[in-house]
Each structure stands twice: as structure tokens, then as C-alpha cells.
Amino acid sequence: MRHSLPLLAVLAAVPAAAQAPPAPGGFDPAALKKTCDKGNFDDCYALATAHRLGEGVARDAGKAAGLLKKACEGGHAQSCVDLGDMHREGAGIAKDLEKTVLFWQRACDGASGEACARLGQLFHEGKDVPRDLTRATAVLQKACDGGVHRACRTLGAMYQAGGVPAKDLARAAGLYAKACEAGDPESCGLLGRLHRGGEGVARDPARAAALFKKACDAGGLAGCHDLAVAYERGQGVGRDTARAVSLFTRACDGGEAHACHSLALLARDGVGVPKDLARAVGLWKKACDGGAARGCLELGVVYASGKGAPRSVAEAASLYRKACSGGDMRGCLNLGALYAAGGEVTRDLRRATELYKEACDGGDAAGCGRLGRMHEMAEGVPRDMDKAMALYKRACDGGSSLDCYNLGHALRGGQLFTRDPRQGAVRLKQGCDGAVAASCYELGLMHETGDGVAKDPGRAAALFTQACTGGEPRACAKAKAYGR
To answer: Which of 187, 209, 293, 347 could form a disulfide with 323, with the two C-beta atoms 3.0–4.6 Å apart?
Structure first.
């Protein structure tokens, strides 16, 4: 006669032995033991589970482990999974991660998609065992093919990030789509983001919004946040600030830290909600505590400025450090600036340089510009004008309009680098297009005289007017002279 017990994929550690509770009706451990001894591994597993839980028999982790090992060696995949769990947690037996990997791999080889997923996550994270992305890719693919949809999502993220495996956004989109269709809300949201940006799939804001809604409706709070952003900006749906506020609030209340940050921005600026800096500060704290690096950055700015909280550079430094570690490169940049300036934080140019480099390598254009200046001025690093020039170009090309102006100014004047008015004009135009008034003014001077560009008084007059409107006082007299 077959018996069934509740099965748990992962069980908490339990004492090795305990008084057996009354046996459930029809449960016969002796009969299970006999059929287990005869090779019925389902019954070995059922009896092992009973000993793990202390249901109908004494709670005994040692006996449970022995029975699971017997069933595992007989090809019972779930027994291998559970035995691996026991060794990972040290649940009444010795903690042994090597055995966890061994038993999970055996279960994975035995067609347990769950075991493949756990093994893939283990090698992907690299926390308890050495990171092995090649092995992670293989077993996650097997898990995904076996219907474990969170494995499809993790594998999709790996293809999206690139490295190992090689970056393949179309492949990532396909994996997210598979998991989304199977009901994984997080994958729906990730696929929505790809459609929003046109990465690996056609850019389709409406499709993105629909996927965000699907994720949100299924309980995915990140999807609620992304849907709120769509309503806030009118991307793929009609602009609806009230709807955005409602979704941000729902997601934030549910623990989605990035939604708390977004809601804080609205409260700071009084968009859709009453302007309330104190509320914004509270929301940024909640965001930061929840792991949203942008919340830590904004809270750091509050403490550095003393607007919204008592001024504390030490607290600002701590928050910038947290933002930097969390992946917001502006935190690295701001912390570097504190170390470069000194004062309430001990001046440390070498540390500032390291932080600017981290920001630059992380894609922050202004960080590249600051690092270039450190090389130009020999602050924290040896003077290296070639490196400074390369960094200023990188900063400008990365979107730092102020660095475009600085680079254009230097190339026009020839004080720091070999004079090159033609390239200087190119960089000054980039700075002017980025609303740096001084850049418009200097470009106007070049068009006025024909220095590196065609002489064009009309163009010069227009640039002087633009610079004057932008707040460059030197340009106002020039514009007036042209009758502007």
C-alpha cells in the first residue's frame, strides 16, 4: 500500500531527534521501511521526509539523510535535491557544500529542473562556491528547458549583461518571453524594458507598457514601478500623473525601493502631490535602506547641502559611499569631490582619483572629466597630458557638456594642448548644444573672426544672443553690438 506525505522543496534545519507525534491515519512507517528496503525509492523518500518533519515518527535528521542517500543513489532525483539541501543548511547533519553540489548535480542529471536551477544560481552568484558562469549557463539552460521559469529569467539576465555567455539581447528577450508567458511577472517586466529601449527587440512603448501592466497585475512590484514611469512620461500610454502616483505608492508600500525614490522626486518637486521636502527625505531614506542606490545619492545631497536635514558632510560621505557601492556612479563622483576638497572630510587626492576612475569606468562622463583634470594638474596621480586629453574627450563624447566646453576652450587657446581651433570649434559646439553659455560665447568669437570656422557675423550674433540669454554676461555686450 502506498502512502503520501507533504513534500517540501527546502526544509529548515531541525533537531536530530525528537519525540514522535501521533501517526497520521493509515501511516505505517514499518511498512514503508520494508518496501524501501526492497527498492521502492518513493517510499524511502516518504519515510525520509517523515523523519525530517517528525510526522508519525521521531524527528531524526540522520535517519532522514541515510534514507535520502539510498533513494538518491537509486535514481530518485528529489531525494538528491533534499539531501543537497540538508548538507547546504547543516540541517541536523554536517554542512558540506561540496556534497550539496554533488547531490544537486546528480538530481540535475536525473532530469530535475529544480536541481539544475539551484545549481545554476549557486554558480552564478559565486557566494558559497567559486563562481563558474560557464557551468551556470549550461545548467540554467537545462532548468529553463525543464520548465523552471526563474532559471529562464536568470539566464536571460546573463545574456543581457554579456561576458559569459556572450551578450545576446535577442536571446535574452526570448528567454524573458518564455518565462513571462509561463506566468513569471519579473520576466514580463524585464521584457518590457527591452521593448521600451528597443534592445534585442523592436522598440515598442505600447508593448512595453502592456508588459509592465501584466507584471504589475501579477504582483510584480518592479512592473508597477515601470508602469508608473510610463504614465508619468506618457510612454506607450496617455500621460496620467495621478495614475503614476498611485502606482508608485503601491509599489513603494510593497517594498519596491526604486518606487520610493521616484515618489520622493515627485514630492520634492510638487508634481502630482503636494510639495513636501520632509516627505521626500523620508522616502529617500526608505529607498536607500531598501537598496536603491539613487535614494542614497539624493539623501547624501540633502545632508551635504543641509536642505531638508541638518548638514553633515560625514553622513553625506557615508551615503555617497553606499550609492557608489550600489552602482550609482554619481555617488563615486560626489564622494571623490569630498575627498578632493577636504575640510570636514580629510583631504585625500589619491582616494579622490580612485573614485573618479571608478565613476568614469562605470560610465559617468563627469567622472572622466574630473579624472582628466587630476592627470592635468598632477593631483593624486602623475601629470599626464595625453591621458588628460583622452579623458576629456571621453567625458565630452559621453555627454558632459561642461567638459566639451573645457576641452574646446583648451584647444582654441593652446595653453594646455597643441592649439587646434578646428577641433576646438567642434567641441565648443557640443558644449553650446548642451546649454553651456560660455561655450556658445567662445564659438561666437570664432565665427566672428573666422578662427577655425567660416567667418560668419550672423552666426556669431546668434551665438552671442544665445550665450547672453543663458547667463554669460560677456556675450550680452557683443549681442548688443550686433543689434540683438
So the answer is: 293
Report DSSP state, residue 198: T
User: Residues 223-254: pLDDT tens digits?
Assistant: 999 999 999 999 999 999 999 999 999 999 99
Q: How far apart are CA 73 and CA 39, in angstroms?
A: 11
Question: Are the C-beta atoms of 448 and 417 separated by less than 8 Å?
Answer: no
Q: Which SS3 state, helix, strand or coil, does residue 17 take?
A: strand
Does residue 151 carry a pLDDT above 90? yes
8 A C-beta contact, residue 352 and residue 382? no
* pTM (2 d.p.): 0.83
Phi and psi at residue 8, in whole multiples of 5°?
-120, 135
Which of these, 211, 151, 152, lies nearest to 185 by C-alpha position? 211
CA dist 88 and 13 (Å) reads 10
Distant-in-sequence, close-in-space partners of 471: CB < 8 Å, separation ≥ 6 = 437
Q: Are the beta carbons of 301 and 278 closer than 8 angstroms?
A: no
Cell representation of residue 134: 560557464
| Contact between residue 347 and residue 339 where contact means Cβ atoms under 8 Å apart | yes
258 close to 226: Cβ distance less than 8 angstroms: no
- Dist CA 301 CA 427 (whole Å): 30
Nearest Cα to Cα of residue 426 among 439, 445, 441: 439
Report helix, strand or coil for 60: strand
The angle, 0 to 180 degrees and rounded to 10, between the axes of the packed helices 349-361 and 329-341 is: 160
Distance, in Å, from the CA atom of 120 to the CA atom of 114, rounded to the nearest integer, reads 10
Burial class for 314, CB neighbours closer than 10 Å (0-12, 13-18, 19+): exposed
The reported pLDDT for the residue numbered 26 is: 62
Q: Which residues, 6 or more positions from 221, have their beta carbon under 8 angstroms from its beta carbon?
A: 250, 251, 254, 255, 256, 259
Other CB atoms closer than 10 Å to residue 53's CB: what's the count? 18
Give residues with Cβ within 8 angstroms of 5, minimum separation 6: 27, 46, 49, 50, 53, 55, 56
- Rg of the chain on CA atoms, in Å: 31
C-alpha cell at 216: 504589475
d(CA 207, CA 224): 15
- Cell output for 425: 570649434
Query: How far is the CA of 200 from the CAs of 156, 169, 173, in angstroms?
Result: 12, 4, 7
Among residues 103, 88, 86, 22, the alpha carbon closest in space to that of 57 is found at 22
* Per-residue confidence (pLDDT) for residue 415, from 0 to 100: 78
For the record, the C-alpha cell of 34 comes out as 520494508
Q: CB-based contacts of 268: which residues, under 8 Å, 6+ apart?
A: 275, 277, 280
